[in-house]
Amino acid sequence: KISYDTFSFYCLTPRRIRKTMEQQGVRGPKPRLLIGNILDVVGLVAKSTANDMSSIDHDIVDRLLPHYTIWTKQYGKRFIYWNGTEPRLCLAETELIKELLGKKSSVCGRSWLQRQGTKHFIGKGLLMANGEDWYHQRHIVAPAFMGDKLKSYAGFMVECTNKMIQSMETELDSGRTEFEIADYMKQLTADIISRTEFDTDSDKGNQIFHLLTLLQRLCAQASRHLCLPGSRFVPSKYNREIKSLKKEVERLLMEIIESRKDGVEIGRSSCYGSDLLGMLLNEMQQRKNSTTTTLNLQLIIDECKTFFFAGHETTALLLTWTIMLLATNPNWQHMVRAEVNQVCNARTPSIQHLSKLTLLNMVINESLRLYPPATVLPRMALEDMKLGDMDIPKGLSIWIPVLAIHHSEELWGKDANQFNPNRFAAKAFGGGRFIPFAGGPRNCIGQGFAIMEAKIILAMFLSKFSFTISDTYRHAPVVVLTIQPKHGVQVCLTPFSS
Ligand code: HEM
Fold it and tell me: What does the record list as coiled-coil region(s) (predicted)?
């Protein structure tokens, strides 16, 4: 039975899927046995990103998704390529994307390969959950990201940003002028998520982030290690390293959880708290006798890892790329600062101010369009389904190339690769065209949190410093799960007080 299942998983099902799609005219590059097109993709990306870009140019699709550019020219807007033994349909038609993320979201989920590849990293937390489990988990954590709860984080965000600005001012006083912004933003967003969702001191938070980053890097190579049957059970150096990092992260998280539980057990507090971790622990406690509950300690740990990961790097990248864009577009920097000064009037930004920062909002959107932290959105058909005119067989992975859609001249016009926040002045772009936070029921749960955080940090930063891009900055976006500046972003700061 096991050998038949393995044979079916690695050979029969992918073949059946390929046949169904070929009959509908969807083709793609020829796959190699077991490894599919992995080597083609790895080789093309290694070549296109081998050098830094010669100028600060936002035309980055050929660099970051060279395989997409080549195969879409050859096979059209829909094509199939193979990630090991997993066939992936690449889908760039906005109407179909809208349908997939919206109406068809209940029959789509995460693929086996994705779940297996991130098992030791974020486990079965919300990002990787499917079906009923996903629905249940989303329902539990959603209140932490809505309404008054969301608004209540603004004060922490201001406090953490003030701390960062003060440390920059101290550095400036001691004669430093150049700052690598990506590291500062990572530290700041890590502080904010640790404080708001886990009420944890930054030392422990830092340790967790450090270990999670190492785990993330290792897991990013998972598809190369998982295409051989049984490879995840082999005690290889790769597997051993992952397991030991996982153990260490989980030990640190358990310390945080235990200290919350102790607080309740010795009567110091009456509940586990109202932040994300508190909500999860309260839910587990309330339902401990229920037979339907799916929440257990391991799942809470997975959820913590998921939110530590999803809640800081993406926002840090949004901030980093936005500062790079403003540093290289002084007119926009000047206009947005004038808006901030007018709206906030020398006070720290409050919730009431944020909705009035229209130009800042346009700049943030344009930054998310040009440098969407998540370059692709992966989905898998959990059942046979119809998508537009296509019959999609169960088990087919569908990849939405967000970066390519955001840079498409057909969708955005001739200036698609230019920084032009004005395009967001008149209307909001939805409908599968502007999807930095995905869309439909399975969109980013932290979208409101991220935008609020980005507006507060940028407004405070702009009102304290004027900045230009440093001569040492080398423009070299690369993808390591998210779009990152390979050598960081160096800017020269001038404080307004001087
Ligand atoms: C600029 C910042 C952010 C961007 C661009 C972003 C982007 C995304 C995208 C594209 C997805 C969908 C992934 C997919 O379906 O494959 C997603 C999901 C998710 N994001 Fe974010 N995110 C950001 C910030 C945050 C923050 C601040 C948090 C938490 C505090 C967060 C937590 C999550 C979680 C838990 C999911 C999974 C939701 C689900 O599957 O139901 N994200 N994010």
Answer: none
